[in-house]
Amino acid sequence: MSVDHPPPPAGGRNPFGAPGYHRPEAPARFVPPPGAGERNHLGLGLAVGVLVAVVAAFAYGGLLWGLTDRHGSSVEFHFGAFVMAALVGITVGEVGGRVVALPFAAALLTAGAVIFGSLFGAALIAGDTAAGLGHSLSVTDVFFHHFGSLWRAWTHDFGLGRLSTLCCSALTAYGLARYFGDR
Hints:
The protein is an all-alpha fold and 183 residues long. Helix content is 63%, strand content 0%. It has helices at residues 42-66, 78-96, 102-132, 139-145, 147-156, 160-182.
């Protein structure tokens, strides 16, 4: 019997795609052993989170001082608290990794940074207002020697808006730290 087409190549593969055709197998990928790529750096995550929170708090206080008009009245800038929450949460999550305590630490660091930034901004505004009235009152003097008065003024203005900003920014930092830590 004569055949009109050539015989299939060795190995049983048909180059024309007929039912006997088998795809070549993909090369094997390197699979790391379990736990090789995990990031669990509690100390480093906390250290970098504290650093970012302190820098963001000073920037937030400066922003609050910069938004003060010529008559000494200031505008509370709630969006800045969420920017701080994003900075702290993303940084803690990326650096610290999958440690369970780090999202809680990011939330506490953010709440502390928002409070410290607000107090620092109030001290900057008080020093600037005193300088405008002809008195010499530095920011460090307001912050360290008159902290009780500064704290009373800040808590006197504490209302639902400030509480919701504080809580929502802490929750934002928690969520971002958890998301970027699990990624």
